[in-house]
Amino acid sequence: MDSNHDTGGPQRAPLANFLTYRFARVQSKLNAQASRILREHSGVTITQWRIIAVIGDGGPCTSAQLSRMTAMDKGLISRNVKSLNAEGYLSVTRDQTDNRALYLDLTEKGREVFERTMPRMQARQKALRAYLDKSQIDLLMQTFDTLEKAAEDPNV
What we know:
Blueprint: H1 19-41, H2 46-58, H3 63-70, H4 74-86, E1 90-94, E2 102-106, H5 108-129, H6 134-151
Antiparallel strand pairs: 1-2
Helix pairs in contact: 1-5, 2-5, 3-4
């Protein structure tokens, strides 16, 4: 039977046409590339680096704030904060007014990793953007904004 023959049933899209599949493939490849760079320049994982980068860029924050800013799972953040603290990259201090709140900040060692790796990761972003022209970047950013809204729609 001809695979292009319409049987009247629902059309099946090959997995390669699923937006989520394509995003996952691209994300996986980009994460592998970033992990290699980070391994070579700092020895931290991509998740650890994202935590270091958020705190390095924005200053001290709580795990809950990190979770909101990065859209990372709280458990993933908690495990990585523990390892970053144990390895001397992060300091954890209790809030004086709310004993439940823990503030995370970079130690001198964490700040050094941030300062050393940020220029390399910014250069990588520039190199990735060089594959696209301005109109493609603008459209991609608009698409991300639209899909992020769609991802929050409970009716999808």
